[in-house]
Amino acid sequence: MTASLRVLEPLESNLPNLDIGNAIWTIKEAAAYLRLSTSEVYKMVRRKDERRVTHFRLGKGLRSPLRFRKSDIDAWLEKRCRN
Questions:
Q1: Which of 2, 20, 23, 66 is the most exposed place for a label (fewest CB within 10 A)?
Q2: Domain coordinates of the chain in residue numbers?
Q3: CA dihedral 30, 34, 40, 45 (to 10 degrees)
Q4: pTM for the full model?
């Protein structure tokens, strides 16, 4: 069974400017930038291989909020596009 990606329209009208240098984003902002659903980004966070998206948590534990740096996502995308 293959998983299908559900691509969403960007949420730009509801989000702050996503193109600010080294901005730190929430999962919704990262999903809007990648044009994916938040559930797909959560799947990318849980991966245990090179496809895992770079992220960090605010606090300790698995329920701590996820955050993403634009520069990290851009580097991750560049790496994925080369492979």
A1: 2
A2: 22-82
A3: -50
A4: 0.68
Residue 40: which of 11, 73, 8 has the closest Cα? 8
Query: Three-state SS for 16?
Result: coil
Per-residue pLDDT of the chain (83 residues; tens, 9 = 90+): 455 556 555 555 555 555 566 788 999 999 999 999 999 999 998 888 878 888 888 888 777 888 999 999 999 898 888 86
Spatial distance between the Cα atoms of 32 and 29, rounded to a whole number of angstroms = 5
Crossing angle of helices 27-34 and 38-46, in 10° steps, is 100
CB 6 within 8 A of CB 50: no
Instruction: State how far the Cα of 78 lies from the Cα of 60, in Å rounded to an integer.
Output: 29
